[in-house]
Amino acid sequence: MNDRNRNRTVPSRNNLSDREMLYDLFVGEKYLSLLYDQAIMTSTNDRVRDTIEALQQSGHQLSEKITAVLQQHSWHPNQISRQQFSQQAKNPESLSTSRETVGSRCLASSRVKHSSDNTTNRRSSSQFRRNQVKSELSNLNLE
Amino acid sequence: MLYDNLSERERICLEDLWQMESLNIVKCDAYAEKCGDPKIKSTLVDVARAKRHHASRIRELLG
Which of A23, A31, A48 is the best substitution to test chain B (most B C-beta atoms within 10 A)? Predict the structure, then answer.
């Protein structure tokens, strides 16, 4: 990075509320857990598998922490009332922007990944996911 | 700790994991900075710290 770029300040486009930020991380953790599952099932090396399993366990604990905060504030998706749910179903535009975040998009790409079975397709879906990560980073103006 | 005998599939899975953990670290840091509630901020800082550990372990596996 040259000096000109380093000194340039880019205004953040992150206008998410606390609730949306936490929900985004919550969805991201769910997706990470799927990736850990996939890595565990793929691994043929016991030591690698054990390490990944330990990291997944730790990830679940982090997810519990985030869930606890969401529940404290009654922000957890399971705590949305039936009335709110039916309102959202009638008016999909009212859904929070966090539902359009990396987790849901990555889950869609995960389905693409599962439907492909050869290495070439795995490579391309992996590349697709990496592009999504880059896009998320650029949305946060942190890349 | 290096695992030279990782298959291509294993390597792809680990790289994906590393990418996602890294993204979440960046998000946690950004969100912690933006967050108004000190309790939530503290949770996000803890999560970011744990995720840094995860990412470094995965990096070690990749060699």
Answer: A48
Structure tokens at A76: 């957890």
Q: What is the ipTM of this complex?
A: 0.91
A131–chain B nearest CA distance, Å: 11
> CB within 8 A of A11, min separation 6: which ones?
A141
**How close does chain B come to A6, measured CA to CA in Å?**
18
DSSP A30-67: HHHHHHHHHHHHH---HHHHHHHHHHHHHHHHHHHHHH
CA A39 – CA A53 distance, rounded (Å): 9
- pLDDT at site A40: 96
Mean pLDDT value across residues B23-45: 94
